[in-house]
Amino acid sequence: MAALRERIEDMEEVSKELLKLMTGGKAMDMLKHNLAQQEQMIDKLLDTQKTTKQLIRELMITEEKVAQRLSDREEELKVSIQKLQKTEEELLQANEKDENLRINTNELRKQLETLREESRQQQQNAAEEADRSTSATYLVHLYYQICHIDWDYSCEPTLIKGTHYGPDIAQSINLDSSQHSPCFISDYLWNLVNTSW
């Protein structure tokens, strides 16, 4: 209760002081002055709020523009990346085709070189065969001139058949190489040749 009494007494003193101020005429002037300052502060606050709202609007418009530009740049970047990937794929495919062509060209060159070598070998073999054939023809003719024997080439490989045209009479030759030695056959044939030339 004592605390309540003290508070009431304090309030009475404040009330008395307020009454003195109000009766002195200064309170009204102070109140008017304070109200005028408060109005100015409220006007400034309202102006500041308007300016702040305007700045926020402008900031939001700028953010939207920046976001749109960023979105446009991202889209352009995606398109550029897709073009780059497509170009890289085309380059890889071109490189693979080029590599395949190079491999095929190398293989074809090797085949061509092999065919050329085979052709050269065949030409050389044909030339050698022609030389051998010419030589064989010459030798056969020479043998015939010396020994006058016509050979029968239609017989079996183990048989030696032919006809010897000697100076007096034609004589038939029929030897089996499996039953006679090569030395015997050679001696027999040389004995048919006329040595008086």
Helix content: over 70%
pLDDT averaged residue by residue: 81
Q: Strand pairing plus helix content: what structural class? A: mainly alpha
| pLDDT < 50 stretches | none
Report the strand count: 3
Largest sheet: 3 strands, antiparallel
- The number of helical runs is 3
SSE topology string: HHEEEH
- What gross morphology would you assign? rod-shaped
Distance between the termini: 182 Å
Percentage of residues in DSSP E strands: 5-15%
Q: What's the Cα radius of gyration? A: 66 Å
Strand order of the largest sheet: 1-2-3
Describe the structure.
This protein is mainly alpha-helical and 197 residues long. 79% of the residues lie in helices and 9% in strands. The protein has 3 helices and 3 strands, in the order H-H-E-E-E-H. The chain has a 3-stranded antiparallel sheet with strand order 1-2-3. It is rod-shaped, with a radius of gyration of 66 Å. The chain starts with a helix and ends in a 5-residue tail after the last helix. The mean pLDDT is 81.
